[in-house]
Amino acid sequence: MSDTTAQEIPPQFPVTILTGFLGAGKTTLLRGLLDKPEMANTAVVINEFGEVGLDHMLVESADEDMIVMDSGCLCCTIRGDMIETLRRLIKQRYKGEIPAFDRLMIETTGLADPAPILHTLMTDPVLSNRYRLDGVLVCVDAVNGMGQLDGQPESVKQVAVADRILLTKTDLADQASVSALTTRLRENNPAAPVLTVLNGEADPADLFGLGLFDPEKKVPDVARWLREEAFAEDHPHDHDHAHDHHGQHHHDVNRHGDNIKAFCLIHEGEIEWDKFADWIESLIAVHGNDLLRIKGILDVKEAPGPVVIHGVQHVFHPPTALEAWPDDDHRSRIVMITRGISREPVQEMFEKFLAT
Ligand SMILES: Nc1nc2c(ncn2[C@@H]2O[C@H](COP(=O)(O)OP(=O)(O)OP(=O)(O)O)[C@@H](O)[C@H]2O)c(=O)[nH]1
């Protein structure tokens, strides 16, 4: 009986979004990864745009694990298709029409804003039941990355929402350029480790299992997911790093004008959920587009354990109640990466809502 029940409950498949600007090495990485035995059960959805070159070769040389989407750009035209494709994959998997994949990777077009696909995964009623976001990877080309960040706001956004930044083509760039680019990437997203990926060679263990729920570990790995310590790291050589009058740390001034700000709000004591929700709604109403990524763990009065929140711009995943705190630190902590919004007014507004 229990076996039947277990089979009826569908697992949530981890989804990795692979993003990165044109020619940044996404397909090369995908090809490198798919060669590895531990990636055998990975389904791949490729979103093509304009010229089809390498992507098609990869698809044609691959087996049924590969499913191509070729109707245009993820950010504007393909959302309906994407939803349809992700739903179809689940159906086909359960009917045995395709190999029983246990992980999904979506390669976005280089021009894509990664937010809409994240929104889809977080809010589509069918998809959010069947898939869970494992992580967002962004490839950044060591040779052209700096210029792309200068000229293309979408590439800044891709970096800001990522969980891992993969620096490619370091073999073609000099050391000084690589370190200047790395500094800029860290400024734009202190939470995402910057890893070097040469000619698509990467260890899957570094790229997967980044979500809150890693089935291999059974218990939610809040620390790995939130990485709040990264927002408070001391960078002795980083002039852009600031301390405020609360003694808290944040990455504020941005010498390249990317205007990305990353900080952590901390609150001691229980939070009433309604007040928190009012605050978030107000924040979204005023700044929705500029809240690039928000993650948090909250000490909510009405819940026995902590509550985890996760948002991308104006869209939030339904809050997740955890059974227990991962450690002795029971403070509410919210990490934010924003476009142009500083910590102080956000924290002030937060405290004001909680005090009402
Ligand atoms: N030298 C060097 N070349 C690389 C590296 N990674 C990728 N390339 C090359 O860079 C070119 C672009 O790589 P792709 O993997 O097609 O990049 P992409 O991000 O998929 O490109 P689009 O799909 O056009 O956005 C290819 O010719 C790759 O062989 C690297 O680490 N070093």
Automatic annotation (TrEMBL):
Keywords, in A-Z order: Chaperone, Hydrolase, Nucleotide-binding
GO molecular function: hydrolase activity; nucleotide binding
Catalytic activity: GTP + H2O = GDP + phosphate + H(+)
Top-level taxon of origin: Bacteria
Presence of the UniProt keyword Membrane in the record: no
Keyword Flavoprotein listed: no
Gene3D superfamilies cross-referenced by the UniProt entry: CobW-like, C-terminal domain, P-loop containing nucleotide triphosphate hydrolases
Cellular component annotations (GO), alphabetically ordered: cytoplasm
Pfam families in the cross-refs: cobW, CobW_C
Domain annotation CobW C-terminal: ranges: 260-354
Function: Zinc chaperone that directly transfers zinc cofactor to target proteins, thereby activating them. Zinc is transferred from the CXCC motif in the GTPase domain to the zinc binding site in target proteins in a process requiring GTP hydrolysis.
Family: Belongs to the SIMIBI class G3E GTPase family. ZNG1 subfamily.
Protein name listed in UniProt: G3E family GTPase
